[in-house]
Write the C-alpha cells for this entry.
Amino acid sequence: MGYAMSRLEIESNLCNEADTIHEDCSSQLTKNPLKNVDNEISQMIKLKSLPHQLLGRVGPGRPKLPVSPVKMLVGRESNYSGLGRFSSADCCHLLSRYLPVNGPWLIDQMASRAYVSQFSDDGSLFVAGFQGSHIRIYNVDDGWKVQKNILARSLRWTITDTSLSPNQRYLVYASMSPLVHIVNVGSAETESLANVTDIHDGLDFSSNDDGGYSFGIFSVRFSTDGRELVAGSSGDSIYVYDLEANKLSLRILAHTSDVNTVCFADETSHLIYSGSDDTFCKVWDRRCLIAKGKPAGVLMGHLEGITYIDSRGDGRYFISNGKDQSIKLWDIRKMSSNVTCNPGYRSYEWDYRWMDYPPQAKDLKHICDQSVATYRGHSVLRTLIRCYFSPAFRKGERAEGGKIDKSSTQVACLSILTEALRYYTGQKYIYTGSHNACVYIYDLVSGAKVAALKHHKSPVRDCSWHPFQTMLVSSSWDGDVVKWGFPGSSEIKNKANSSGFLKFGASATSDNWKA
C-alpha cells in the first residue's frame, strides 16, 4: 500500500493511554483465584508440576507448596525421593516459579509496527514481521544476529502472519491478499529481496468458486510434516494448500464472518481449529469433511469475535483470545454438533478497531458458555492480539544430577534452575499481548494473573515464550522487539560480587530466592 501506510504511526492519545496504564500494571496483579478449573486438565497439570511428596517435608515446619529451591536441593542431595535425581515433575515445579519477567533487553527497533514475533520449534531462530514490508529472522544462538532480512513482495497493508516450516528451510508470509508467499530461508544471502536475490513464490489460495472476490489471509500455519498449509481468510473460509502438488486441496466456507485464526490441533493434522468474527470456535475433522461437509463441532461462549487460537497440542484443549476482552479455555469434548443458541444482537454500537470496549458489556455472559475457564484482565483492541500456552514438557529428556558449588545458596539454586531448564513449565501458564502495551501471564488452573511485563508504548500484538529457556520476546506497534528473561548461567559471572552472592535488581522473581 506504499510507504505512507507502513510508516510508524503512534497516536498521541494511544501513547498517553499506554503510559497511564503502565502505572497500574503491577497493581492489577492478583494471587486470588479468578476461577478454579474443575476439569481433567487441572489434574494433568498437577501431575506434571507437583514435586515428590517427601521433598516438601525437608526441614522443620509443616509441608507447604511451593517447595523452596533450598529444600529441594537438600532433598535431592539426601536422596529423599529415592531416585537420586529430580523427576520431570520436580523440575517443572521448580522452574515454573521463575518466570521471564526480568528486563527487558532490546533486540531490535524498527520504524514500523511489529505484527508477528515467533520462535522456531527448537528455539534457535526468531521471526519478526513488520508493517513496513520487512520480515527479519534472528539467529538466537549467535547473539541475535540477523540471519535473514526479507523484503516482502506484493504486500497489502501489513504482514498479517508468518510460519516457519518444521525443518526451518522455508518461511511463508501472508498479507491482505489471496497470495501467500514462500521463501527459502536456508540460502546464504542475508538480504532477501523478492525475485532479485531470492525467489518469493506466490501460492494462490483463490478458487473458482470465490466469484472473483479478493480476500486477505489473516492466519497461516505449516502442518507438522511440512507438506501442507492451513489458512483462514476474510472470505469466511478455511483453506488447505498441498505444497507437494503445489495447489489448493481444500476450501471450506467455514463461518459467516472473517476467519481470523486457524491451527492444527495436534501432530496428526487431522483436526483443524478455527475462530471467527462470528464469535464461534469450530472443530473440523478432515477425515469426514467430504462426506459431511460441516464441522465436527461448535464451541460457544465468546460474545465478540475471536482474534487467535492456540492448541495445547493434545487434540483436546485449546485457548482463544476474544474481542470481548477475555481468553477462554476449551475442551472439544464439550462441543455441540451445531449452534444451539446465540447471544443475540447487542444493544450497543462498537467497533474494536477504534473504540473502547463498552462499560455495559463488561459484565455480560453468554447464556450457553461451553468454555472450561475464562481469563480477564488484558485488553483486546485495535488489532488481532494473540495468546498462547506456556511451553510444554520436552519429551525424551531427563535432568541428571550434577556437582553443585554450595558456597552460595543462590548459586546452588541457579544450578538447580540450569538442571531444570529442559523440563520447563508443563503448560502451567497462558500468556497474551494486550492493547495497553503490556504482556500478561495467567495461571491456567487458578486463573490468577501472575505477571505483567511493561515496557512498550503501543499495543503488543504478539509475543513468544522460548520452547525451553526462561525467555519471552514481545513485539509492539512501537517498533520495539525486546526479550524478557531470568538470570541464567551466562549472567552469573557478571552479577556475582566478591562474597560469591548474586546482586539482583528488584523484580517479580526476586522474592523467590528466599528459602
